[in-house]
């Protein structure tokens, strides 16, 4: 039952990627509104999951799981009935809030049910594969639903599955909670959400308003100021949302960083790739979804292949190797040229998916193995928050960079070729808008416009892929330099004691 809810959670992260053309034709959202619709789910999930993890430990993990699924179902109904872009954005944010309650509960239940290190590694490998499969098969499921019904059916799909899973959870999943209580850090929770909202908002508005506009620069400055205030507040709070000693454990701090930046690279690239499959290669939503299947398949292989490697060599080499493979895959994507076929995308997905699976299972094992069982909800929340923040920023940054480069390139190309200004103004929005415009033009103009659109899109795609490849390569180097070379499992030191006994370092494993 945990895996069913977890799959739905991952599915909702990307299921709308291939529904964008259908959604744009119906609700007419702007480019910025499209980014908010896609990113709102991960944004709220990442911004509130730390607070939700603390609540989960105290109110009950099964109860939080069930409440989160119920909230997702209710928000999905609102999304299916939305009549304006802002309503859809609000529904996606509501779904993210439900996912924030549900996600820490799944991993903390696993942490408490599987106390043997080898069994826990296998369970975490399954958790990683299911979550990755949900996120990466989103375009496939969404494509089929959109093609046979509409984008609204993507939301209706959640409702019966969520309600059945809630009922089954109360019958099959045992409850667990921490009996001792601590006050919830409300100020820390609000500040952390404001930091993320402000930062991602500035990134999304950058291509629309201009990267040097007062609104965008002010957004970045405000995000930095809020982050400084939040960090200071966490050091002074008697019950901090994110205890500083937690991040001082290198397995947690560096492991969480690796998960965040892997998600930044992979989910941003997936968003760009689905636009390429539809806007440049001309595939339908279903055809585009089918062509993303190699990515989740490779991720599942990587997750299960990484599990025995962790047992033999520890987490550091597995995380580093996974990040190197993701970087190599993105390097392949960066060699895309106009006219490149699908084979290049298959190779990218195989390498990046394999590496992402290895990084995810080893990084998750590092984070969860370094926290005592009594703080499993908080450990899970750290793991989940870093993933979702990385995913949200990946889509926002890579999508915004793509939009900026695409707009500049196609505008210059069309104007240099004497295309009328009204056509240029209609074609420089997105590659999907350009393709829709080209379909209404006579043959010579259509071919010229589509050629310019492909050239501009590939120009943007190669630069976003290079950015993501550089990020993952630098992260691999940081992991190899600062991640503990070897660590014994927490259980050896008694830190998995249900009563919350800690090791000498405060939270989990001591580096050897």
Automatic annotation (TrEMBL):
**Cellular component per GO, a single term:** plasma membrane
A molecular function annotated in GO for this UniProt entry is:
transmembrane transporter activity
Its main localization is membrane
Localization terms from the record: Cell membrane
Q: Does the keyword Nucleotide-binding apply?
A: no
Q: What is the membrane topology here?
A: Multi-pass membrane protein
Q: Per its UniProt entry, which superkingdom is the organism in? A: Bacteria
For this UniProt record, give its keywords in alphabetical order, as a comma-separated list: Antibiotic resistance, Membrane, Transmembrane, Transmembrane helix
Q: Which residues cross the membrane?
A: 34-56, 63-83, 89-110, 122-141, 153-172, 184-204, 210-231, 252-273, 293-311, 318-339, 345-368
Q: Which InterPro entries match?
A: MFS, MFS_dom, MFS_trans_sf
Its BP terms in the Gene Ontology are: response to antibiotic
What are the residue boundaries of the Major facilitator superfamily (MFS) profile domain, all occurrences included? 1-487
Q: Write down the PANTHER family for this protein, in alphabetical order.
A: EXPORT PROTEIN (PTHR42718:SF42), MAJOR FACILITATOR SUPERFAMILY MULTIDRUG TRANSPORTER MFSC (PTHR42718)
The name this protein carries in UniProt is Putative MFS-type transporter
Name its species. Streptomyces aurantiacus JA 4570
Lineage of producing organism: Bacteria, Bacillati, Actinomycetota, Actinomycetes, Kitasatosporales
């Amino acid at each position: 039952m945990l895996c069913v809810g977890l799959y739905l959670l991952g599915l909702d992260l990307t299921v709308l990627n291939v529904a964008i053309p259908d959604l744009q034709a119906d609700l007419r959202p702007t480019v910025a509104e499209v980014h908010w619709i896609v990113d709102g789910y991960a944004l709220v999930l990442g911004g509130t999951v730390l607070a939700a993890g603390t609540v989960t430990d105290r109110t009950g993990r099964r109860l939080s799981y069930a409440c989160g699924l119920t909230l997702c179902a209710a928000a999905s109904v609102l999304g299916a009935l939305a009549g304006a872009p802002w309503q859809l954005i609000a529904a996606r944010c509501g779904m993210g809030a439900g996912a924030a309650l549900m996600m820490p509960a799944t991993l903390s239940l696993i942490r408490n049910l599987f106390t043997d290190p080898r069994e826990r590694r296998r369970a975490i490998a399954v958790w990683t594969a299911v979550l990755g499969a949900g996120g990466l098969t989103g375009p496939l499921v969404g494509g089929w639903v959109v093609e046979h019904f509409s984008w609204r059916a993507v939301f209706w799909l959640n409702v019966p599955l969520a309600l059945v899973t809630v009922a089954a959870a109360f019958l099959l999943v045992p409850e667990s909670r921490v009996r001792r209580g601590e006050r919830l850090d409300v100020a820390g929770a609000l500040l952390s959400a404001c930091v993320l909202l402000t930062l991602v908002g500035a990134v999304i508005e950058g291509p629309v308003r201009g990267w040097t506009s007062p609104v965008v620069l002010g957004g970045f400055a405000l995000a930095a100021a809020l982050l400084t205030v939040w960090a200071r507040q966490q050091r002074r709070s008697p019950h901090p949302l994110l205890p500083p000693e937690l991040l001082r454990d290198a397995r947690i701090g560096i492991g969480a960083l690796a998960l965040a930046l892997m998600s930044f690279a992979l989910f941003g690239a997936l968003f760009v790739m689905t636009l390429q499959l539809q806007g440049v290669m001309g595939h339908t939503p279903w055809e585009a979804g089918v062509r993303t299947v190699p990515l989740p398949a490779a991720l599942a292989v990587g997750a299960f292949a990484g599990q025995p490697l962790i047992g033999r060599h520890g987490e550091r080499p597995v995380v580093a190797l996974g990040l190197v493979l993701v970087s190599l895959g993105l390097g392949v994507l960066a060699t895309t040229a106009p006219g490149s076929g699908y084979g290049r995308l298959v190779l990218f997905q195989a390498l990046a998916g394999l590496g992402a699976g290895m990084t995810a299972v080893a990084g998750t094992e590092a984070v969860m193995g370094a926290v005592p069982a009594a703080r499993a909800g908080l450990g899970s929340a750290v793991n989940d928050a870093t993933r979702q923040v990385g995913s949200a920023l990946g889509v926002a940054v890579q999508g915004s960079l793509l939009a900026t480069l695409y707009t500049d390139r196609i505008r210059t190309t069309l104007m240099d070729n004497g295309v009328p200004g009204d056509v240029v103004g209609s074609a420089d929005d997105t590659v999907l808008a350009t393709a829709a415009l080209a379909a209404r033009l006579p043959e010579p103009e259509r071919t010229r416009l589509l050629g310019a659109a492909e050239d501009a899109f590939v120009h943007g795609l190669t630069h976003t892929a290079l950015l993501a490849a550089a990020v993952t390569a630098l992260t691999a180097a940081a992991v190899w330099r600062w991640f503990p070379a070897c660590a014994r499992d927490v259980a050896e030191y008694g830190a998995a004691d249900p009563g919350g006994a800690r090791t000498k370092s405060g939270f989990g494993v001591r580096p050897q």
